[in-house]
Amino acid sequence: PKLLLRPLDWVMIVAYLVLIAGIGVYCYRREKKQSTAAFFVGSRSIPFWAAGISLYATNSSAVGYIATTAKAFATNWQYFLNNLIGVLGLIFVAIWIVPVLRRLELMSVFSYLDQRYHRSVRLAASALCIMTHVGGRMSVILFLPSLAISTVTGLNVIWSILIMGVVTIAYTALGGMRAVIWTDLAQVIVKVGGLIFALGFIVSKLSGGLREAFSTAMADHKMHLLDWHFDLTAPTVWSIIFLVIVEIVLTFPKDQVLMQRVFTTTSAREAGRSVWVFAAMVIPGSLLFYLIGTGLYVFYHSHPDRMNPLLSVDATFPLFIAAELPMGITGLMIAGLFSASMATVSSILNSVATMVSVDFY
């Protein structure tokens, strides 16, 4: 049977949504007549640490919240190597790429293509980026968590998408990039706080505690990390190194969603430091997801009667949230799922608005 949210859970979700909307209203009232620079790049006055946290919030969407824990639950830690090596790629970007682009005082990263090549190259690249984010990435980021939440709580998929979409559109349109970044900060606190509580709760429900969790995970090879086989179709060390080179070094500079946060900082030096903050958060943030995924495996290994075999593996963590966590905490965790999606969607909305306005209009 579907597990419906209880009244206190709804109170937590509504309180979270009101908080996020309030930040947007505050940013709007603080600067009602926003200039283009204020709306799109926060008047280039955002502290580097806030921009770095926003980079992390944008990059770790609800897809990771659900899919990463499910992957660790179903397999092992081989994909965690992607994050470990990815930090090296971010360091390269922070030192050699980001400061150069920040000195150009860009709003849209594709303006660089206009300066270096031709306006047609800029427009083509910007149009492809807009279509990819609106037609592809944003759709998945809204749909996947809504599907998982609906499966285990009974909340209709359409209502879930509408709640996230309407609130996100409201605070993004009102407060611009400043609201996006400061709501990202609040969303990271909600998300990480909920994840830490969930991990502690899992361990507390094991009769052997951490010792049982570790021994079961090691016995079933759930924490296996390195695969040195030369196979580019599997998550081996070599394929992940190749992936990081392509994904981080080559794609970070052309990702308007990420680069727009870099452009909000006060200087090229601060821009580089924001990426350093992002890099510093990647490993502990990702580790938390993998620990929860492995913890869920150990929990359901010890309590097989609590597992619903009819649900997909992607619903494992949402099932645990709805079925096992105390009332109120369940609402906080669902709010964390919302926050993970909304942080990425707000970034996409603001970045697409920037590209449409700056590159085209």
Distinct helical segment count? 14
SSE ordering: HHHHHHHHHHHHHH
Mean pLDDT: 87
Tell me how many strands there are.
0
Radius of gyration: 21 Å
Principal-axis shape equals globular
In which range does the helix fraction lie?
Answer: over 70%
What class would the helix/strand composition place it in?
Answer: mainly alpha
| Assembly state | single chain
Q: For the record, give the distance between the C-alpha atoms at the N and C termini, rounded to a whole number.
A: 51 Å
As a percent range, the share of strand residues is under 5%
Can you summarize the main beta sheet? none
Q: Give the low-pLDDT segments.
A: none
How would you characterize the overall build of this protein?
This protein has 361 residues and is mainly alpha-helical. It has 14 helices and no strands. It has helices at 7-30, 36-41, 48-59, 62-74, 80-102, 111-116, 119-153, 157-204, 209-219, 237-250, 256-262, 268-302, 316-324, 329-360. Helix 5 (80-102) packs parallel to helix 10, helix 7 runs antiparallel to helix 14 and helix 9 crosses helix 12. The longest helix has 48 residues, at 157-204. The mean pLDDT is 87.
Supply database-style keywords.
361 residues, single chain, 76% helix, 14 helices, mainly alpha, globular
Q: How are the secondary structure elements laid out?
A:
Elements: H1 7-30, H2 36-41, H3 48-59, H4 62-74, H5 80-102, H6 111-116, H7 119-153, H8 157-204, H9 209-219, H10 237-250, H11 256-262, H12 268-302, H13 316-324, H14 329-360
